[in-house]
Fold these 2 entries.
Entry 1:
Amino acid sequence: MTHSAVIVGAGVIGLATAYRLARDGLAVTVVDAASEGAAGTSVHNAGWIVPIMSAPVPAPGMLGKAVRWMVRRDSPLYIHPSPRPDHVRFMLRMLRHCNTEDFAHGVEALTSLNERTLALFDEYEEDGVRFEHHRAGQLLVFTSRRTMEEYRAATAPMERIGHSAVPLSGDELRDLEPALGKQVLTGLRCPRERHVDPVSLIRGLEDRCRGLGVRFLRDSRVVAVRSRGRAVDSVLAGGEEVEGDLFVLAAGAHTGSLARLAGHPLPVRPGKGYGFDDTSGSVTLRHSVYLGEAKVAVTPLSDRLRLAGTMEFGSFDGAVDPHRLRGITRSARTYLPGLPSAVQPHGWTGLRPMTPDGLPVVGPLPGKDNVLVATGHSMLGVTLAPVTADLVSAHIAGGRRSTGTAHTAAPFSPRRFT
Ligand SMILES: Cc1cc2nc3c(=O)[nH]c(=O)nc-3n(C[C@H](O)[C@H](O)[C@H](O)COP(=O)(O)OP(=O)(O)OC[C@H]3O[C@@H](n4cnc5c(N)ncnc54)[C@H](O)[C@@H]3O)c2cc1C
């Protein structure tokens, strides 16, 4: 029987899992290297809940684009020309997944996984998780009809789970969002997509976890995993030996090395993103808006407008490259001309946990009987947090619950990397 769980990582995946397992009645401890909750990737993102974007990053043609963009320091996609073997190996593995068949498999798997996403966020609110939650819907806007048609085709499979993308003209889009400029020619309206303030979601989940008795160990990086045969007994963190019946590795982009400590490394690498918060009030929006060709996410929050973008492979650090921020600002002004032209002073970065096939890794760690992994959510960690926690909970419960989710969970098994 599982009575206690230790969760490594207090990002959105770790917290959603802690909340779910505490509600299941387990004694939960969350261990995190950071000293406070408002620091990592889970607060530095666009905050979108977007089942309509259920697609893996490795897509046909993706690496070709990246190679063309490698000469531009402000491009939305960038691969560092680093000779580090783990980086090269990862990129080559990802290249192998940039084909139509794997992409279609990934879309299908992520779409099924997203079936209950909105219902689970509603349940958060019903259960007293407090966070800033917007239901106005999302607009994907484009300066070219061709790009719009590509996105329209890409979003068609999500109609199966009730998420649609309705084509609109530039003028129809401006009726909905007058801040959009004349260059916006066409777009898609996705009425069921939502967004949150990610900072408030992290705080809300942590508060609710504390209310349920979850213990938090902050400033405590896991540096060793103690095992006896196939069972992990404890993790060593912040000078403390933390014991539990079950361990969940949810350390975001660092989960690969953490899994190595537990005896089975996983190919999880960072995909660095950038963003900033505009508090000038010069542009107001109701919907979250995706600036299609620029690949920039714009999120209207109660006290700021958040802009986020860029996928940079090969850097593990949190340094802010001003060229990238400038790239986001410059390209966003094409769509939203009212934005200030000056580079924003408070830029931030976040490390998306990436896998070579672009799919999350959720399930038992091979070689261990009491270790589960929950990571690799790439651009969809906020969206997929509640449903990931649900899969972990079902796995622990076993029996009918785990049989019921087995089909949905299968494509995400860590075993695919053995
Ligand atoms: C620019 C940008 C925009 C994004 N926009 C969206 C969006 O709109 N919608 C969406 O769904 N997703 C979005 N994402 C993706 C989303 O933010 C991530 O998928 C998600 O935050 C990953 O959460 P996580 O809990 O796995 O990892 P993290 O948030 O990175 O948390 C991992 C935690 O583990 C801790 N840790 C690491 N190593 C150790 C260790 N050894 N011991 C103890 N603790 C450790 C870290 O301190 C950290 O707190 C975006 C990401 C970026 C960068």
Entry 2:
Amino acid sequence: MANDGSRHAEAPLEPSGETVGVVFVGCGYAADFYGATMPNYQHVEVKGAFDVDEQRAATFVAEYGGRAFSDFDEVLGDPDVAIVVNLTPVSQHYTVSKAALLAGKHVYSEKPLASSLPEATELVELARERGLLLSSAPSTIFSQAAQTLLRAVGDGLIGKPLLAHASLDMGALAFMPYTEWRSRRGVPWPYLDEVANGCVMEHAGYQLSWLVAMFGPVVRMAAHTSLQLADKWPGKTELAPDISLGFLEFASGTVCRLSIGWVAPADLSLTVVGDQGVLTVSDVWQASAPVMLQRHARTSGKTNAYLQEAEQLPFVVPPAQHRYDDTHDLTVGAGVADMAAAALKGEQPFLSADFSLHVLDVSLRLSEGRGVMEDVALPACDDKKLTLTPAVPRTAAR
Ligand SMILES: NC(=O)c1ccc[n+]([C@@H]2O[C@H](COP(=O)([O-])OP(=O)(O)OC[C@H]3O[C@@H](n4cnc5c(N)ncnc54)[C@H](O)[C@@H]3O)[C@@H](O)[C@H]2O)c1
């Protein structure tokens, strides 16, 4: 599927001068990723922040601009605020997003969209009824690596995509010094929340968003999970699985073996195998990870070789100027910027409500080890509700 890019999410929009007011609700660890990267997007105006912990909102606005709102109602009542960016803990996502939608605000939520499918579906329907935009992170789909991979697949560089091997194994979290991790403002990494949510609900979207963008919605899947390191979290009674394996079939016919976990050594790669070659990104958490292409080679004689040397594809979009100085480069602000651009143009963001709902649905199935073996569309992706096609994001369209 050809796509040839004149606009992308990592650069400012055409200088129309119009801006969209944004407020961050929740100023914890992840908020620094946003604050540091929003200056990439001149059409986004940071109006400020709110946190139930006043000190956190104060340090956020001191570092990244805008004003500290004294309560949530003040955010909701401010006519200059068009988008609420929900960076609260997962348990608060539904309540905060619902209140913002009811107040007439577009909502960009950190992942997952909500803790359950019924809650997320209610948010999606509320947004639709009120003509508001709703999106969920992750937004790594706008990275140089993702845009280049999607373009290469769309342009047919590997022929027909048959199979993907996708991993989001972050390494064995329990053996890392996670209690010492701090954000730029010194906010500790909330490991108790992360472990309770589990590796799948925290991380599946990083691979699923790329896969669904390339191959369309999941139409059939199997999943299995395990909890291997429960004894490393003493005192925690509710723990989610730390290993998940999924086998997914997409609307395009492409299938995927997906591994997510925090037990095995780190592997954050994505490989797409076509009938004419192979594309690989070594690390989907690095915005500028190289995209490598191996074309089929003509060979003869007694050999099992069939692939040429890997060549690095030129990136199809430039790097973001402002990056968050962390071990990962997650392009977080790009999703908010795409929503702001969509609001200005009266369009849907690439990470639409239906897209986000589908990613959540598949994530929940993976997290619960709940596969669907019948050859039927999943509930969140019937033809009327889901408009996904195996296509590249419009942000890469020329
Ligand atoms: N920690 C990470 O590395 C990371 C990375 C990417 C995305 N995320 C996602 O970002 C979101 C937030 O995670 P975090 O790590 O920043 O958590 P955190 O606990 O560090 O921060 C959450 C903040 O929200 C505030 N808060 C809680 N309830 C609130 C409410 N009702 N209204 C306003 N503020 C409220 C808390 O006081 C806290 O400061 C989660 O969805 C998480 O999955 C986290």
